[in-house]
Specification:
This protein has about 100 residues and is an all-alpha fold. The chain has four helices and no strands. The longest helix is centred in the middle third of the chain and has 52 residues.
């Protein structure tokens, strides 16, 4: 009989004592609140990770476009390319060196 009373004291839910049960309600509510906050935080972080992946893909696309435009611009700035475009306008490079004016 003593052994049974020991286990009844350890596992208080076997007793019909509602006061001891009510003592744990705030702790259960607090743990529940922490659980809800944990779930909300994980959903928020996954949403942010999806946005980051989307922006990274967009950045890679814009980087490729930038490199293509830069390559085209470098090709257009070549000396021979500019010279051919200027010849079509009727301009020619000078035949002699420019004169240097020296003032003493």
């Amino acid at each position: 009989m003593a052994r049974r009373n020991f286990w009844d004291k350890v596992f208080f839910w076997r007793q019909n004592n509602s006061e001891r049960r009510m003592e744990n309600v705030p702790m259960i509510l607090f743990i529940g609140f922490l659980g809800v906050m944990y779930i909300a935080n994980s959903h928020y972080s996954e949403k942010q990770a999806r946005k980051i992946r989307k922006v990274e893909a967009e950045v890679q696309s814009l980087k490729r476009e930038h490199m293509q435009i830069l390559s085209t611009l470098m090709h257009e700035k070549k000396h021979t390319r500019i010279e051919n475009d200027v010849k079509q306008l009727g301009l020619a490079p000078p035949k002699s060196r420019p004169y240097r004016i020296v003032v003493n």
